[in-house]
Design brief:
Blueprint (H helix, E strand, L loop, with lengths): L1 E5 L10 E6 L7 H4 L3 H12 L10 E4 L9 E6 L8 H17 L4 E5 L8 H15 L18 E5 L5 H26 L7 H15 L2 E6 H6 L3 H7 L7 E8 L4 E6 L1 E5 L19 H16 L4 E11 L11 E3 L5 E3 L7 H13 L5 E6 L3 H7 L4 E5 L2 H14 L3 E3 L4 H5 L8 E2 L7 H10 L8 E5 L25 H14 L1
Parallel strand pairs: 1-6, 2-4, 2-5, 5-6, 9-11, 9-14, 10-11, 13-17, 14-18, 15-16
Antiparallel strand pairs: 3-4, 7-8, 8-11, 12-13, 15-18
Helix pairs in contact: 3-4, 4-5, 5-9, 6-9, 8-10, 9-15, 10-14, 12-15
């Protein structure tokens, strides 16, 4: 599938399908007004007949009776004008694209009308991302794949004066959405096919192709580096743990991102109930997002220095596994008493955050499918946000509003730190059921230097579509790739803001 930006009169467009967007209860969009009267009439009749209400995501194919190159007009609803956002664009165009595929269009044109307050390049980027992501399927393990073809060419029709800007926006959106697809692929992979070492190989290959360096630390080195959390959690599996450190140098300020890479979380000795345990292959979603983010940032050549850190382990019970009651020592010298081996994410992130802190980044952000408690608190509609810095938290929230990856901040008051005090070590890894998402974040905060702006994003409810996930056209079942678009948007806003 290819995307192109063109600026031609809609009448001259020769694509199989043309997508026409409408707000609920409004008149023809401007772009349609340039169409011949007869076609306008054909589009108007289903609207007048009440079949098309332009509700968000509603798509109605209209086949013109008149002979011409356009076989179908795909009327798509953007919903109510007062609720309009880039998210509405993504949703609507995702559905339009799926319909275009269903009806067998090999080329699709999307006129980009003026939709303030958003600029044409912003809308182009949203359309490209949504279309590319709506077609994502994790079907590599299926012996037979559905054979209906994808459209080959998507043409975005824009005004001549914004063509160059829209061209760039479309190219960047392809880079970004391809990275999101990589994140989905990694997170969707069955754990047996992606042990920690394999994850490191993937990161290394992606780095070589996209322009970032990768260093992989293995068991012995991790022991020498004092990474008791990664070693402790990783030693229960015959697939040894690794720490993956990726670096991209585009000049400018240094940012660090850390992603939880538990390729499978059985709970370890504190084993999980078997119901839905298969979903714990998604416990590497933070890692997937970080590797994909490195790829996108390197390919976009953003003027930042970015360090991506992924502690990768498999949390299994065995004769060598970590046990409740054990005490481990982390990279920064602090110790923790293990209450539950199922609270493993914070143990591997502790070492990774301490290590990242040593590099004194301007901001340090971690992404982790960390707690079931976060899913209880926010459901699947937002990721949890925890931070020691208001400016950083606000910038991330703003980025999330824009990309449709909403964040909701929860407090880190000192009382929560009391909950994880231990009699025998500096802290314990579980603070009881109340405020479970917050005490996990409080645990992590012990491993970040207090001078470094840090944010922890708990993506347990948003990393894959769960029963309660709302249906979204561009987010099919399985891993969502959450965090990639969010952090690109965040880094871009940092670059702009200086
Ligand atoms: N990977 C899980 C968190 C999780 C659970 C994510 C369900 C998504 C859906 C994490 O390692 C975990 O098991 N956390 C425990 C912590 C508890 C033992 C304090 C949890 O949330 O139950
Ligand atoms: Zn766990
Ligand atoms: Zn986990």
């Amino acid at each position: 599938m290819k995307f192109e930006v063109i600026s031609t009169n809609l009448e001259e467009v020769k694509s199989d399908s043309v997508v026409i967007q409408f707000f609920e209860g409004t008149e023809f969009p401007e772009s349609v007004l340039t169409l011949p009267e007869s076609i306008r009439g054909e589009i108007a009749s289903p609207i007048e007949a009440g079949g098309f209400k332009a509700k968000l995501g509603q798509v109605l194919p209209v086949y013109p009776k008149s002979v011409g190159p356009v076989r179908c007009f795909l009327l798509v609803g953007l919903g109510k004008k007062q609720d309009f956002s880039l998210e509405a664009i993504r949703q609507a165009h995702g559905y339009a694209a799926l319909k275009a595929k269903e009806i067998g269009s090999s080329s699709v044109a999307v006129p980009i009308p003026n939709l303030p307050p958003y600029s044409a390049p912003e809308i182009v980027a949203s359309v490209v991302e949504a279309v590319n992501l709506a077609f994502y399927r994790f079907d590599r393990y299926k012996s037979k794949v559905e054979d209906s073809k994808y459209p080959e060419l998507i043409s975005l029709v824009v005004e001549p004066d914004v063509k160059t800007l829209c061209d760039t926006a479309a190219q960047e959106a392809v880079i970004v959405s391809e990275a999101v697809k990589l994140a989905r692929d990694i997170a969707n992979m069955p754990s047996s096919d992606i042990p920690p070492k394999k994850l490191a190989e993937i990161a290394t290959e992606v780095g070589a192709a996209s322009g970032f360096s990768t260093k992989v630390f293995e068991m012995e080195v991790l022991e020498r580096m004092g990474m008791g959390g990664i070693v402790g959690v990783g030693k229960g599996s015959s697939n040894p743990p690794v720490l993956i450190v990726m670096k991209y140098d585009g000049g400018g300020d240094t940012y660090a991102v850390v992603g939880k890479g538990v390729i499978f979380d059985s709970g370890g000795i504190s084993i999980k109930p078997s119901e839905k345990m298969e979903e714990m292959k998604y416990d590497k979603s933070g890692a997937a997002a970080v590797i994909a983010l490195m790829k996108a940032v390197a390919e976009l050549k953003l003027p930042v220095r970015l360090i991506g850190i992924v502690p990768a382990v498999e949390n299994l019970p065995s004769g060598n596994a970590l046990k409740p009651g054990d005490i481990i020592k982390f990279r920064n010298g602090k110790t923790a008493e293990i209450i539950s081996t199922d609270a493993e994410g914070r143990l591997i992130l502790a070492d990774a955050l301490a290590y990242a802190s040593e590099m004194k980044p301007k901001a340090l952000i971690d992404l982790a499918t960390l707690t079931g408690a976060c899913v209880i608190a926010l459901g699947t509609h937002a990721s949890g946000l925890f931070s020691n810095n208001d400016r950083l938290a606000d910038a991330l929230i703003k980025a999330g509003e824009k990309t449709g990856e909403r964040l909701w901040r929860l407090p880190l008051w000192k009382e929560y730190f009391e909950q994880i005090k231990s009699e025998v070590a500096d802290m314990k890894n579980v603070g009881g059921r109340p405020a479970g998402a917050i005490t996990a974040a409080a645990f992590l905060m012990n491993f970040v230097d207090s001078g470094i702006p840090w944010a922890h994003i708990d993506i347990a409810g948003t990393a894959w579509t769960q029963e309660s996930s709302p249906e979204k056209s561009y987010i099919p079942k399985g891993a969502t790739g959450i965090g990639v678009r969010l952090l690109i948007e965040f880094l871009k806003s940092e670059i702009k803001g200086g």
